[in-house]
Amino acid sequence: MADLDQPVRVEVAATPASRQRGLMQREFLAPYTGMLFRFDPPVSGAQGFYMYRTLIPLDIAFLDTDGRILALRTMTPCESRDPRRCRVYRPGTDYAAALEVNAGFFRRHQVATGDRIRPAQEGRCTPK
């Protein structure tokens, strides 16, 4: 069960363009911030995330339509200039959203598969 002392403020990536850009080229992600990727309809578990042109290591939580965490992954930056050579991080099951935060965040706050991410207010998420 998550042990979180404050909500996570998120940018929402709901359009194809914003989802494609994600957190690329960011040199820093403040504590308790992240990016929430929404998909309507949900996407196949074979579709994943990669770290092409992403400079900082990230944790990702793949979520169902109710905000339940289906899978957690820690992603490391890809150093290749060819996106096809970057590792793809997949949940192995269909998902409706994904939340990216700084690497190690979920472990530090005891966020686990099965926990639920819920909106606390507009633009914030709270594991519960």
Automatic annotation (TrEMBL):
<dbReference type="Pfam" id="PF02643">
    <property type="entry name" value="DUF192"/>
</dbReference>
<dbReference type="InterPro" id="IPR038695">
    <property type="entry name" value="Saro_0823-like_sf"/>
</dbReference>
<protein>
    <recommendedName>
        <fullName>DUF192 domain-containing protein</fullName>
    </recommendedName>
</protein>
<dbReference type="InterPro" id="IPR003795">
    <property type="entry name" value="DUF192"/>
</dbReference>
